[in-house]
Amino acid sequence: MAKFIGAVVVEIETCKGCNLCVVACPTSVLDLSSEANSKGYNFSHMANSADCVGCSACANVCPDACITVYRVKTA
Ligand code: SF4
Ligand code: SF4
């Protein structure tokens, strides 16, 4: 079975810090940053980037389409 490694990019200024993506990630990659964007929201970021499998669960759940997922096939 092919394996994937993934990475996500979060649109920091669009993120409202709702935490839905953090909860949705099956491998606990995401967390809310201690830093805030210009609107005062603690945005989501990759706290544990090595475990991203590119499944897109985070992007699918984000109500504001802030997340872009990149996947690379490894085997
Ligand atoms: S693509 Fe999947 S594994 Fe990667 S951060 Fe999003 S939910 Fe987590
Ligand atoms: S689901 Fe979207 S708006 Fe909510 S914290 Fe994650 S990236 Fe931000």
Keywords:
75 residues; two-stranded antiparallel ribbon; 2 helices; elongated; binds iron/sulfur cluster; 13% helix; mainly beta; Alpha-Beta Plaits
What does this structure look like?
The structure is a single chain. This protein is mainly beta. It has a single domain, classed as Alpha-Beta Plaits (2-Layer Sandwich), CATH 3.30.70. The protein has two helices and four strands; from the N terminus they run E-H-E-E-H-E. It has helices at 20-24, 57-61; strands at residues 4-10, 30-36, 42-46, 67-73. It has a two-stranded antiparallel sheet. Strands 2-3 form a two-stranded antiparallel ribbon. A hairpin with a 5-residue loop joins strand 2 (30-36) and strand 3. It is elongated. The N and C termini lie close together (8 Å). The mean pLDDT is 96. Bound molecules: iron/sulfur cluster (2 copies).
Task: Quickly describe the structure.
The chain is mainly β and 75 residues long. The chain has helices at 20-24, 57-61; strands at residues 4-10, 30-36, 42-46, 67-73. The strands form two sheets. A two-stranded antiparallel sheet has the order 1-4. Strands 2-3 form a two-stranded antiparallel ribbon.
